[in-house]
Write a structure and sequence with these properties.
Length: 378
C-alpha cells in the first residue's frame, strides 16, 4: 500500500471512529430510555440496567455504521479538497484511482464489520436481551421490591418495604398473610434479604415480630425473633420460554425454523424479509462509499481540468493524418472543412471572446502552443 493510500485510510479511520461512537451513543441513549422501567418499576440497579441495554449495542452499530462511513468520507474528501491535496494529486499526473482505492478498501473493511454483526453477533445480542427482559419481568424480587408501596403478591398476601439498599437488603419490612382460613399473620422486621438455599427461595427477616390473630375470636399473640425465614418458593412465577422475533433469531434458524415453532409458522414472511436484510445490509457500505467518491473524489480546480482538455486537443491537432490551418478563429483542414469535433469544442477562440476557465492567458497559451507544434509537425 502506498503512502498516499495509508494517509487517506488513516484519516478516514479516525473520522469514522469518532462518528460511529457519537452516533451509536445517541441512538443507544434513546433506545435505553425505552427500557427505563427496568430501574423504575422492576427494582433493577443502574449497573444491571446498563448491562442489559448494552446487549443491543452490536445491532445499533450495524445500523449506524454505513451512515458513519458516509459522513467520515465526506469529511476526509472535503478536507483533502480544501487543503488542495486532491489538486496536487491531479496536477502530478495521479489518476482518480489513487483516491478511489483507499476509499474502496475502507468501505470493504466496514462491509465485513457490518456483515459479521448482521449475520452473527447482533442476533445473538438481541436474543440474550430478550431472555434477560423475560427473566426480569418474571423475577419475584423485581415484582415485590417497590419501596413505599403495598404490593399484593397473590390473594391474601401483601408485601411492603421502606427502602432497598444497594447490596439487596430490605429495610422496614412488613408482610401481611391472610391466606390461612383461621389465622392472619403479620410479620414485621427491621431488615430482610431474599436468598437462595437448597433450591428454595427464602425471605430471611432479622429483628422482628410475628403477630398471630384469629379471624373469628381470640387474643393476638406476638412472637419476637432474631432471625426468621419465610418461604417464597411457591410465590415465584414460572418464567415462560421467551418468544424470539425475526431479528432475534440466528441466521441458521431463519433458514430452517423448527416445525413446531408457532411464531415462524405465523410470520414466515417476516423471517424471509429479515434473512434478505441481513445479507443486503453490508452492501450499504460499498454503495455509500462510491456515492461519496462520485461527488467529492475529483479535484475542483478548473485550470487543471482545462489543461487536460487542451492537452487532448493538442494531440488531435498534431495528428499527422491531417494538415490543419488556423482560419476564421477556428481550426480547419487545409480544404476548409471543420477539424475534429473535440478540437472545435475545446480549442475554439472567437475574436474578443474569453475562455470559461481560470485564466484566459493560460487557455490562449495552450492553444498557441498546440498551433505552433502543429506547424512544426507539418
Amino acid at each position: 500500500m502506498k503512502t498516499l493510500e495509508r494517509y487517506i485510510m488513516r484519516r478516514t479511520l479516525y473520522a469514522f471512529t469518532l462518528t460511529i461512537a457519537a452516533m451509536t451513543g445517541v441512538v443507544w441513549a434513546t433506545q435505553a430510555l425505552r427500557q427505563l422501567d427496568l430501574v423504575t418499576s422492576k427494582g433493577q440497579t443502574i449497573v444491571q440496567f446498563i448491562g442489559i441495554t448494552m446487549l443491543a449495542l452490536p445491532f445499533l452499530i450495524m445500523i449506524v455504521a454505513p451512515f458513519a462511513l458516509m459522513l467520515a468520507l465526506i469529511l476526509v474528501l472535503n478536507a483533502l479538497s480544501g487543503d488542495s491535496e486532491l489538486i496536487v494529486i491531479d496536477a502530478s499526473g495521479g489518476s482518480r484511482f489513487l483516491v478511489l482505492k483507499p476509499v474502496l478498501l475502507f468501505s470493504f473493511a466496514v462491509m465485513l464489520l457490518i456483515g459479521s454483526l448482521s449475520l452473527y453477533i447482533a442476533p445473538g445480542g438481541l436474543a440474550q436481551l430478550r431472555t434477560e427482559i423475560t427473566r426480569v419481568r418474571a423475577d419475584l424480587v423485581a415484582n415485590i421490591v417497590k419501596p413505599g408501596k403495598f404490593i399484593s403478591v397473590e390473594g391474601g398476601l401483601t408485601f411492603h418495604i421502606r427502602n432497598r439498599t444497594g447490596n439487596g437488603t430490605l429495610d422496614g419490612l412488613l408482610l401481611h398473610d391472610t391466606r390461612d382460613g383461621e389465622t392472619a399473620f403479620t410479620y414485621q422486621a427491621d431488615t430482610g434479604q431474599i436468598v437462595e438455599a437448597a433450591d428454595r427461595t427464602l425471605l430471611v427477616m432479622n429483628n422482628g415480630t410475628i403477630q398471630r390473630r384469629p379471624k373469628q375470636e381470640g387474643d393476638i399473640s406476638i412472637v419476637r425473633f432474631q432471625s426468621y425465614a419465610f418461604d417464597l418458593s411457591n410465590l415465584i412465577p414460572e418464567a415462560g420460554e421467551p418468544v424470539f422475533k425475526a431479528s432475534e433469531r440466528t441466521t441458521a434458524n431463519l433458514f430452517a425454523p423448527g416445525k413446531n415453532d408457532a411464531y415462524a409458522l405465523k410470520n414466515s414472511d417476516k423471517l424471509s424479509q429479515e434473512l434478505h436484510e441481513r445479507f443486503s445490509q453490508p452492501l450499504y457500505a460499498i454503495a455509500f462509499g462510491l456515492i461519496v467518491f462520485a461527488f467529492l473524489g475529483e479535484s475542483k480546480n478548473h485550470e487543471t481540468g482545462a489543461r487536460r482538455r487542451y492537452s487532448g486537443c493538442d494531440r488531435l491537432l498534431c495528428d499527422p493524418a491531417y494538415v490543419r490551418v488556423w482560419r476564421d478563429g477556428d481550426f480547419r483542414r487545409a480544404d476548409g472543412t471543420a477539424g475534429p469535433a473535440l478540437c472545435r469544442a475545446d480549442c475554439r477562440i472567437r475574436s474578443g471572446a474569453h475562455f470559461n476557465i481560470q485564466g484566459t492567458a493560460f487557455a490562449a497559451q495552450m492553444v498557441g502552443q498546440s498551433a505552433a507544434r502543429c506547424s512544426g509537425s507539418d
